[in-house]
Amino acid sequence: MRLKKDLSIQTQIILLASGLVFMAILIGGVFLVENFSAQLEKEIGSKALSIARTLAQLEEIQQAVGKPGGTEIIQPIAEKTRLATNVEYIVVLDMHKIRYSHPLQNRIGTEFNSGDEDPAFAEHEYISRAEGVLGPSVRAFVPIMTDEGTKQVGVVVVGVLTPTISKLVHAMRFQLYFSLLAGLVVGIMGSIALARNIKRVMFNMEPGEIARLLEERVAVFQSIGEGIIAIDRENRVTIINDEARRIVGIYGQVIESDIRDVIPNTRLPEVSQSGVEEYQQEMVINSINILANRIPIRVKDTIVGAVATFQDKTEVREMAEELTGVKKFIEALRVQNHEHLNKLHTIAGLIQLKKYDKVLDYIYSITEEQQEVIGFITQNIKEYSIAGLLLGKYSHAKELKVDLVVDKESKLTKLPSGLDGGALVVIVGNLIENAMEAVRGLSDKRRYVYCSIKERDAGLELVVKDCGTGMKPAVKEKIFFKGFSTKGTARGYGLVLAKQYIDAVDGSIKINTEVNIGTQVTILLPW
User: Fold this and answer.
1) Is the pTM of this model over 0.70?
2) Are 389 and 464 spatial neighbours (Cβ–Cβ below 8 Å)?
3) Domains and CATH numbers, the chain
4) In whole angstroms, what is the distance from residue 430 CA to residue 466 CA?
5) Once rounded to an integer, what is the mean pLDDT over residues 197-220?
C-alpha cells in the first residue's frame, strides 16, 4: 500500500515499524499460545494416563470390576482419587462397558459409549481428545489386566478438561499486553532514530524533495551549453550530458566506462589524482578545438573524482564575433576603405585628364553629400555609438547599391531606462543588416531600406522597413530562436540577443511581412 505523499519519512518509518512490530508480536503470540496449549494438553494427558495406570493396578479394582457389588468398592476409591488429583472424572468399566464409577451417581451402572473406547478393550492404552458438555477434554484409556497381565477385566478412563485458546489468552493477557507495549515503544524509538539518521544523511530533505531536486538538476545539467563529463576515483564515467556527447561524438552507453576509452587524450585522471585544477586548457577532441576546465571533486576534503567542462572553441569565437559586432565593424571599415579608394582613383583620373573643373565639382558633390549625411546624423542622433553605426551602414549600403534612407524626423537624445548604447547598437544593427540582406540581389527599384528612430511619448520607436522577399509564416515563427538562420551556419544569434534586450525593458516587437512584398519591423522601447 502506498503511503500518502504528505507524510514525512519519519512518520512513514514509524508507522511501518509499528505495524511490523505489532504484526510480529501478534503472530508470535498466536504461535506461543498454540504451542503452550499443545504442551499443556500433552502434560494433562500424561497426568491422566499416570492416574489411570495407577488405578488399573489396584487389586481392589481388579477384583471388584465385573463382579456383583463391585460398585461399592470401586466408586469410593475413584471419587477419592478424583478429588485428590483434581481431574474431571474417573470411570471404571467392565468388559461390557458398564460403568462402575462416575462423579454422577445416576450414570453408574449405565453403558459407556463415546465412540473412541474400543481400542482400550483390546488391551491398548492411549490418550484421546473429546468435546464434552463442559468443553474440550483429554481422556486416558488404560486396560485393567489380571493374572499377571494375561487377562483383561475392564478399562479405567480418566478425563481432564483442557483450557480453550480464549481462556489461555485471557490468562496470559497481561504478559501479551506488556510484550506488545514494550515492542511498540522499542520499535517507535528505533524508527525515530533511524529516520533522523536517514534525514541527516539526506540533508534533512524528504524523498519527494530529493526526487524533485534531482529532476531539476538533471534538466539544468542537460540545458547547459557546455559539455560536462565527470569521473570517479576509478576513472569511470559517472556523468555526461548531451553537449559532451555531441562534441565527443559518442551517443551510446558510456556510464561506468573508463574515461580513456571515451576520450583517449584526456587529463581528467591526472586531475583526480593530483587534486590540482586546470582552467582554459586547449585540446582537440574528435577533430574539434575545445577550451576545457578540469576540477577535482571533493567530498568532506576527500577527492572522489574529477569533472571537466568544455566548449567548442570555434563556436565560442564565432558567437563572440557575431554578438560583439566585430565582423560588422570590420566590414564597415573595409567598405569605407574601398569607397575612398574608388573616389581617389576617380579624382586621380580626372586630374590626369586635366579636367580640373570636373575634379572640383566631383569633390564638392561627394563632400556635400557626405557632410549632409554626417551633419544630419550627428545633429539628430546624440548617442555616438548609434550615429557611428548609421554612418557605417550608410557607406555599406552604397557599396551594395542599396538605397538606405534614414527618416529626416529621426531623433535620439536619450536612451530608455535599463538600456545602454551597446544594446541599442545590437538591436538597430541587426535590423538594418537583415533588411539590406533581404533586398540584396533584387532589382534596383526594390533595393530600398527605410529606417527611423523617433522619440514618442510612450518610448523610443524604431522602424526598419525593406522591399525584400518577405518571410513565410514558418520562418517568421522561428526568427527569434537561437541558432536559426536562413543565411547559413554560424548565424542566428543577433536577433536572439536583440530580443533579449527588448524583453529586458518590457519592449514590444511588431512584424508585418508579406512574401515578395517586404517586411516592416516596429519596436517600442518604453522610457
Assistant:
1) no
2) no
3) 16-168 (3.30.450.20), 224-312 (3.30.450.20), 364-526 (3.30.565.10)
4) 13
5) 74
